[in-house]
Amino acid sequence: MQRLYFECPKTGARVDVGIESELNTLLLIRAKPVRALCPRCGEVHEWQVSDAHLNRAA
Ligand SMILES: [Zn+2]
């Protein structure tokens, strides 16, 4: 499993929006933007999966 981190466009902080995915799923959703509530600034942002930082679970 891999966990997706996105960069908050407002604060520049790396945020965890709670998306955890297998690579196969990532490939499926890659074409779609991800909309999620940002835990850092409280607004909804739209990210591209291709912009995500991947953190492999240890
Ligand atoms: Zn934000």
Q: What does this molecule look like?
A:
With 58 residues, the chain is mainly β. The chain has a single domain (2-56), classed as SH3 type barrels (Roll). 12% of the residues lie in helices and 48% in strands. The strands form two sheets. Strands 2-1-5 form a three-stranded antiparallel beta sheet. Strands 3-4 form a two-stranded antiparallel ribbon. A hairpin with a 6-residue loop joins strand 1 and strand 2. The chain is globular. The site of zinc ion has 8 residues, from loops. Zinc ion binds at residues 8, 10-11, 38, 40-41, 43, 45.
- Report the biggest beta sheet as strand number plus sense, adding barrel if it closes: 3 strands, antiparallel
The structural domain count equals 1
Helix content: 10-25%
Predict the CATH topology: SH3 type barrels
CATH class (first level) name: Mainly Beta
Helix-strand pattern, N to C? Answer: EEHEEE
Mean pLDDT: 82
C-alpha Rg, in Å? 11 Å
Category by helix and strand content? mainly beta
Indicate the overall shape: globular
Bound molecules: zinc ion
Proportion of strand residues: over 45%
Residue runs with pLDDT of under 50 for 5 or more positions: none
Specify the oligomeric state: single chain
Got a strand count? 5
Our count of helices gives 1
Q: How are the strands of the biggest sheet laid out side by side? A: 2-1-5
Task: Give the second-level CATH assignment, the architecture.
Answer: Roll
| Separation, N- and C-terminal Cα atoms | 10 Å
